[in-house]
Amino acid sequence: MPEIDSSFLAMPARGLAGAALQRAVELGAEHADFRLERIRTGSLRLRDAQLDSSSETEDVGLAVRVVHDGTWGFAAGIVRTTEGAVALAEQAVATARVSRVLSSQPVQLAPEQVYDDAHWVSPYELDPFTVPEAERVGRLTELSERLLATDGVDHVDASVTFVLENKFYADIHGTTTTQQRVRIEPDFTAVAVDRGAGSFSSMRTLAPPAGRGWEYLTGTGWDFDAEIDELPGLLREHVKAPSVTPGRYDLVIDPSNLWLTIHESIGHATELDRALGYEAAYAGTSFATLDRLHTLQYGSPVMNVTGDRTTEHGLASIGWDDEGVAAQSFDIVRDGVLVGYQLNRQMAHANAEALNSDRSNGCAFADSPGHIPLQRMANVSLQPDPEGPTLDELIGRVENGILIKGDRSWSIDMQRFNFQFTGQQFHRIENGRLVGQLRDVAYQATTTDFWGAMEAVGGPSTWYLGGAMNCGKGQPGQIAAVSHGAPAALFRSVNVLNTKQEGGR
To answer: What does DSSP assign to residue 90?
Structure first.
C-alpha cells in the first residue's frame, strides 16, 4: 500500500490547526474544526487517437468551521501561516455571530469518540501523477487506434480523469486525521456515422470510475483490452437493431445500468436533510420522509440496501468524514422496508429519538478547502443474494423481456419518485435466450413500484461497483464522487417507452 505523500505531510498542518482552534475556543466556540486540503486533478482527452487536451490543477487551502452560540460559522483561505489560520477562526466566529438572528434551532452535534493522530490511505497501486504523460497518452492512443481500425467505427472519443486528494482534519475535542484518496475515470466511446441518413450511433465502455490508480487502465480491476475488442461488434449490431415496441416487459437489469437508478431513486431519496426538506438543491427533496421510517415498503422483500463508507475501491470510501466520524456501514433498506438514512452529526443529534440512535454514520464531506462540509452520499449499494442466480440464470427465467446494460440518460422528479432511465445496450430476451439488440429503449416507473417489481437479485458473481465522479449538491454547488454496487436483478412487468416515438421523431 502507498504512503501519504511526503510533500503534504511536510505542510505545517498541526501548527495551523492548533492556532486556529485555540483562537476559536478563546472566542467562545462550542465546537471548532480545521481542515488543510490539497486536491490534484489531472485529465486527458483524445479525439480519433489524437491528443485534444491535457491539464493538471492543484487546489490547496485551509478551512475553519465553528459552532458559536448555537450557530454555524465558516471561513476558508489560502494563506498557510499561523496569522492566517487565526484570522480564519476570527472570521468564522464573526460569521456565526452575524448569522445568529437567522438560527431558529441551536446547532448541536452528535457525540463521536476521539481519534488521535489517525491515518488512512485508499487502496491503489500506482499514483497516476507519477506516470509520465507520454505513457498516459500512449495507453489512450493505443486503445483508440484499435477501435478506429475496426469496421463500422468512424470516430473515437477517449478520456481519463484522475484525482489525488489529501486531507488533514483536527477539532477541539482532540481528533486529528490525515487521509489520502486516489480515484480515476477512464472512458472510450466509439461512434458510427450514417452519412446518408444524417445520423449517428455510439457505444461507450462500461468500465466505471473507481477508487484505484493508473493500474486500472493496465488490467487491474478491469480488462480494457477485452472490452475494446468487444465494443465494435456491439456497435455494429446496435446500428442495425430494430426499434423497440413500447409496452410492458420483464427486465433483467445489469448493474452497469442499475447503479444509476440506485443513485437517483435511493441514494438521493435517503439523504436525511432532503427527507426533512432541509436541502433541495440539484435533486429536490424526498418522498421517503422521516415519519415513514420502518413503515415505508420501498421495494420487494429481496431488496436490501446499505450505505457504506468502507467499500473497497469505493469512490465515497474514507477513513473518517469531515466531522471526524469514523467510516462505517449501515442499513438503509432491509427486506424491502426503509430502515435508515444517510446523515451527519447535526442531523443525527436533532433526530436521535426518531432514528433510535444519536450517532452520525459519517456522511459529511466538503469537495474543497473553500467549501463547508455538507451531508453527502455514502456508497449506497443493493446487496446480492449470497446464493443467488447467475446472469444467465436470471435471463433464463424470462419469456418476453430485455437485458439492459450501461447507463445513458435519465430523468426523475424532485421528490425522487417518478422516473425514466435509458441505457447503452438493450438485448431482446425470448424464451430465456438473448436474440439480438433493440434500440430506443427507456424504462419508466415510480420508485416504489419499480423496486417492488424486483423478483430476484443475482449472486456475488453478478456484482459490479458502478458510480459517478460528479454528484452535485448544495448552493454554492459542490461535487462529490460516489460508488454504487449492485448485482444483476430481475424486474417483472415494467413499462418500456420508445424514446424515438416519445420524442416525436
So the answer is: H
Spatial distance between the Cα atoms of 365 and 169, rounded to a whole number of angstroms? 12
Task: Report the SS3 class of residue 273.
Answer: helix
3-state SS, one letter per residue, for 128-168: HHHCCHHHHHHHHHHHHHHHHCCCCCCEEEEEEEEEEEEEE
CA distances from 189 to 44, 78, 140, 159, 427 (A): 14, 39, 12, 9, 19
The predicted-structure confidence for 149-201, as pLDDT tens digits, reads as follows: 999 999 999 999 999 999 999 999 999 999 999 999 999 999 999 887 778 99
* d(C-alpha 231, C-alpha 156), whole Å: 11
SS3 21: helix
From the number of C-beta atoms within 10 Å of its C-beta (0-12, 13-18, 19+), residue 12 rates as: middle
Contact by Cβ (8 Å): 207, 186? yes
Say whether the peptide bond before residue 487 is cis (omega within 30 degrees of 0): no
Per the CB < 8 A criterion, the answer to whether 446 and 455 are in contact is no
- Average confidence (pLDDT) over 204-214: 98
Grid cell at residue 329: 456501514
pLDDT at 493: 98
Q: How confident is the model at residue 505 (pLDDT cuts 50, 70, 90)?
A: low
C-alpha cell at 408: 445513458
Per-residue buried b or exposed e for 283-313, using 16+ beta carbons within 10 Å of the residue's own CB: bbbbbbbbeebeebbbbbebbbbbbbbbbeb
Q: Do residues 375 and 342 make contact, with C-beta atoms less than 8 angstroms apart? A: yes
DSSP conformation letters of 369-411? TTS--EE---EEEEPPPTTPPPHHHHHHT-SEEEEEES---EE
- Mean pLDDT across the stretch 461-486? 96
User: How many angstroms separate the CA atoms of 246 and 503, rounded?
Assistant: 13
The three cell numbers of residue 83 are 496569522
Chain centroid offset of residue 482 CA? 2
Report the C-alpha dihedral over residues 325, 329, 335, 337, rounded to 10 degrees: 20
Distance, in Å, from the CA atom of 14 to the CA atom of 35, rounded to the nearest integer, reads 10
pLDDT tens-place string over residues 293-340:
999 999 999 999 999 999 999 999 999 999 999 999 999 999 999 999
Q: Contact 180/11 with Cβ under 8 angstroms?
A: no
Which residue reads 422483500 in cell numbers? Answer: 301
